[in-house]
Amino acid sequence: MRPSSKSCVTLEHLNMITFLTVVILIVCFLLGAVILVQNPKGGGLATGFQGASQIGGVQRTTNFLEKATWYLAVVLFVLCIVVGSFSGNNALDVGVDESFAPTTTVPMDAE
């Protein structure tokens, strides 16, 4: 893909955007996995299995999973902002596209 003459996007920018997009996908997968592993805090089907969840130090695991969820969410947010800044509109003319503007004027009726 060749950048247009008005664009400042280089091959290095495209490689960085591709790399960061892959990192975002990995973070999304990890975030989804961490969320699915967590025990639900509310009732529902989990209330019948509370006796088994008290064994083996589940409290420490819950704290770790909650912290991992927050860290991954923050990393995902920051990466999305960074990719947005790298892949923003780099064209020199960022004004209004006037190619659709009418070329003739319509006279107003004087009453």
Structure description:
- With 111 residues, the chain is mainly alpha-helical.
- The chain has a domain at 59-88.
- Helices cover 54% and strands 0% of the residues.
- It contains three helices and no strands.
- It has helices at 11-37, 50-53, 58-86.
- It starts with 10 loop residues before the first helix and ends in a 25-residue tail after the last helix.
- Residues 1-6 and 43-47 have low confidence and may be disordered.
User: How large a portion of the residues is in β-strands, by DSSP E?
Assistant: under 5%
Query: Could you state the order of secondary-structure elements as H and E?
Result: HHH
Sequence stretches where pLDDT stays below 50 over 5 or more residues:
1-6, 43-47
Whole-number mean pLDDT: 75
**Count of runs of 4 or more consecutive helical residues:** 3
Total strand segments: 0
Largest beta sheet, briefly?
A: none
Radius of gyration over all CA atoms, rounded: 26 Å
**Morphology:** elongated
CA(first)-CA(last) distance: 58 Å
Helix share of residues?
40-55%
Structural class: mainly alpha
